[in-house]
UniProtKB/TrEMBL annotation:
<feature type="transmembrane region" description="Helical">
    <location>
        <begin position="184"/>
        <end position="201"/>
    </location>
</feature>
<feature type="transmembrane region" description="Helical">
    <location>
        <begin position="133"/>
        <end position="151"/>
    </location>
</feature>
<dbReference type="GO" id="GO:0016020">
    <property type="term" value="C:membrane"/>
</dbReference>
<protein>
    <submittedName>
        <fullName>Uncharacterized membrane protein YhhN</fullName>
    </submittedName>
</protein>
<comment type="similarity">
    <text>Belongs to the TMEM86 family.</text>
</comment>
<feature type="transmembrane region" description="Helical">
    <location>
        <begin position="213"/>
        <end position="233"/>
    </location>
</feature>
<feature type="transmembrane region" description="Helical">
    <location>
        <begin position="21"/>
        <end position="44"/>
    </location>
</feature>
<dbReference type="GO" id="GO:0016787">
    <property type="term" value="F:hydrolase activity"/>
</dbReference>
<dbReference type="InterPro" id="IPR012506">
    <property type="entry name" value="TMEM86B-like"/>
</dbReference>
<feature type="transmembrane region" description="Helical">
    <location>
        <begin position="157"/>
        <end position="177"/>
    </location>
</feature>
<keyword id="KW-0812">Transmembrane</keyword>
<feature type="transmembrane region" description="Helical">
    <location>
        <begin position="107"/>
        <end position="126"/>
    </location>
</feature>
<keyword id="KW-0472">Membrane</keyword>
<keyword id="KW-1133">Transmembrane helix</keyword>
<dbReference type="Pfam" id="PF07947">
    <property type="entry name" value="YhhN"/>
</dbReference>
Length: 241
């Protein structure tokens, strides 16, 4: 049987490569639009509050959801979209502080988001060892210390905040334990923790200069990094250590 010509083989490989890359193109453009929306919202923070602020804030999550609509496996797509939809709901609620339910509603929405991320990362988790175990141990130790500092100021929110912090740390830990994902997943999980820690300091301890900018920058990076690691960046085999 004659071998196919080199030109025919190269053409076939090129067509296969284009077919593999093509589905990512819309997702990449939507991810870039989400990043631009995040930067735009951050630039507009000096003018806050302003009409349409909630819509501007949620735009990043909406665009990230759209970027995931062709992601496979479908189970990951659904879980990521649930996480982003819940996050977007929390964004809207926290952008409307004049309502009494704003903070608690936002807390509940982000709790759902973290649990959705947990269900996404859990099937990918390896048994923690080495740097993964060290990172998770440091995270939980720091979270416990921060909670003890917050506790005298929490009042009736003591239990809800404890539950929320556990879900947040579990999400970040599972992002670290997830095999095959780009390191941006772990970075995104930890950035989420940093953002929420700053919210806690600002709300329960003492407002600090530029807190709004730091909170948004770390939160936006977290969502963009998690979405990129799940939807855009190639998976690879990683050792459990």
């Amino acid at each position: 049987m004659p071998c196919p010509s080199s030109n025919s083989s190269n053409s076939s490989n090129s067509s296969h490569d284009r077919a593999s890359v093509a589905p990512l193109a819309p997702a990449l453009w939507l991810w870039l639009a989400a990043a631009a929306a995040a930067v735009g919202y951050g630039v507009g923070l000096p003018s806050a509050p302003y009409p349409g602020q909630a819509a501007a804030k949620v735009l990043m999550c909406v665009l990230l959801m759209l970027s995931a609509l062709r992601h496979v496996p479908v189970a990951e797509r659904v879980r990521l979209c649930v996480a982003l939809a819940a996050s977007g709901t929390g964004d809207v609620l926290l952008a409307l502080p004049r309502y009494s339910f704003s903070f608690v509603g936002g807390l509940g929405s982000f709790l759902v988001a973290h649990l959705a991320y947990c269900t996404l990362f859990a099937p990918l988790a390896v048994r923690p060892a080495g740097w993964r175990l060290a990172a998770a141990a440091a995270l939980w130790t720091a979270a416990a210390a921060i909670y003890m500092v917050f506790l005298p100021h929490l009042g009736p929110l003591a239990v809800p905040v404890a539950v929320y912090m556990c879900a947040l740390c579990l999400m970040a830990s599972l992002a670290v334990f997830a095999r095959g994902l780009h390191p941006l997943a772990a970075m995104g999980g930890f950035s989420f923790v940093i953002s929420d820690a700053m919210i806690g300091v600002d709300r329960f301890l003492e407002a600090f200069a530029a807190s709004t900018y730091g909170i948004w920058a770390t939160y936006a990076f977290a969502q963009l990094a998690l979405a990129a690691a799940i939807v855009l960046l190639p998976r690879r085999g990683l050792s459990a250590g």
